[in-house]
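EI: anyone free to look at a 128-residue chain?
SC: sure, send it
EI:
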Amino acid sequence: QVQLVESGGGLVQAGGSLRLSCAASERTLSSYAVGWFRQAPGKEREFVVVIIWSGGSTSYADSVKGRFTISRDNAKSTVYLQMNSLKPEDTAVYYCAAGRSRIFYSGSYYDYGRYDYWGRGTQVTVSS
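SC: here you go
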């Protein structure tokens, strides 16, 4: 059982930045892919970005490419999401999730149903 805890959300003006963190209880995530999803009120949960722990390959949703950056810290078993140039449409609850690395290689990482473990989410609000 992997426990995930997100932090770092908050209120920011359009154009600003936030850094989200996702701390995992598992000492090693080498067999996992860790993704960030977001869900705005009344909308479906949406894929944002994924990183495969072993090797660090990533994939981003088109809507965040060039603005968001995912990274990981092996020693801390933590994944970070640096969000720059934030827009009001980025407003959502952001969740991190972990799934076996095969979901990355199979290309199904965009499907939230493929992930086994989820955090409780952190609210990001971008004002215009």
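EI: The two ends are 40 Å apart (CA to CA).
SC: 👍
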